[in-house]
Amino acid sequence: MPADRPIGIHDLSFSTTSLVLTHAELAAHTGAALGKYHHGIGQKEMSVPAVDEDIVTMAADAAAPIIERHGAGRIRTVLFATETSIDQSKAAGVYVHSLLGLPPNVRVVELKQACYGATAALQFATALVHRDPTQHVLVFAADIARYELDTPGEATQGAAAAAMLITAEPALVEINAPSGLFTHDVMDFWRPNHRTTALVDGKKSLTAYLTALAGAWHDHRAHHGPPIEEIHTVCYHQPFTRMAHKAHRHLLETAGTPADTATIEHAVAPTIRYNEIIGNSYTASLYLALAALLEEDDKLDGRTLGFFSYGSGSVAEFFTGQVTPGYRTALRTRAHREAIARRSPIDYDTYRRLHTQPPHTDGGRHALPHRTRGRYRLAEIHDHQRIYEPAPTRGETHPATEGP
Ligand code: HMG
């Protein structure tokens, strides 16, 4: 039998794209009041991928510092969660495995269930480590959120990848065993295989999210998960950050401890720093909320955190974790802030041009210009194959906004 040791998130690193569109720039063209974006939905900026960036380049960029710190020798499994898949057959994680130079004796698979996929990956990873606590599992959550231009969803786009190393004796957060689960067949948000943008029933999606939150919470309590009074802060999936406020209000009411607006604002504030300037990153969003919280609050030693993961369609999970004493020494605050600061602002016309660029589907050779500021790039698409490479080092000047 394996030893009964704590298992959870040992390292957490994220990356985003090299371009950013501000909501002020977006509002100037959509005619929306800026207050609607900044306060009504709680978004200030959103990451936009350059032509040589995708889920693979972001994921490799996020994980490279983890491999540098811990080595790759104990990684036996790579789980890649995404709903922005680049291939119907080959797992995106296989490209990342190659870019990072991971050893061949590793299993790599891709998981999908909208924004929930990474939480399934995290739970599967803890089970694998429980079976053999000497092994490490590398979990990815990587997505690019894309809606049609000129739709209400447009203001809730974004992109990022989170990489997490799941181990025994984790340095950041131990994942607790009781979980609350909820699945309900609902058409609130979906993307058929032939589409590059999501379809959504916005209002229905808000209700579906809150219904799933209550359902997962009740199941969490039924499985002896801790009561609300014992949970210090809850990290929510944040398709837009105002959703976390709505969710927290709903959870407190469901748990029988309603609170005023100021209390809710205060509780949610430390979890939204990254999501409000990156936008919806689907699978990664919940784990960006965790990164923000751990970096913002230096008094979490031993505290119980709550996590609510929601994936449209829908599957949801409420679970908890214990913050490891001394967690601050394992954080990557500077690197995360640099990843955000290195983004180049683009104007509305550039955003629109990038958004409407057709995918390369003719099987010809399409060399892509070097635009990313990350460590890896999509160099070309040739014969329907995606060719990735480490990005050459570039000087201070950055033609990220030159097109296409
Ligand atoms: P909308 O119609 O553009 O916005 O859609 P609205 O008219 O409902 O306004 C939004 C809020 O802004 C309202 O506040 C307004 O009052 C306020 P609320 O009533 O909600 O409290 N407002 C203002 N506030 C201040 N100053 C002003 C002002 N004007 C208005 N001047 C919607 C918004 C979120 C529906 C849209 O953006 C959308 O469809 N987004 C995509 C769907 C989505 O994010 N759903 C979230 C739940 S589903 C989910 O989380 C899963 C997902 O991540 C996908 C996956 O799982 O893979 C999406």
TrEMBL record:
(3S)-3-hydroxy-3-methylglutaryl-CoA binds at residues 147, 246, 280. Residues 385-404 are annotated as: Disordered. Residues 6-168 form the Hydroxymethylglutaryl-coenzyme A synthase N-terminal domain. Residues 395-404 have a biased composition (Basic and acidic residues). The lineage of its organism: Bacteria, Bacillati, Actinomycetota, Actinomycetes, Kitasatosporales. This is Hydroxymethylglutaryl-CoA synthase. Belongs to the thiolase-like superfamily. HMG-CoA synthase family. SUPFAM superfamilies: Thiolase-like. The keyword Acyltransferase does not apply. The keyword Disulfide bond does not apply.
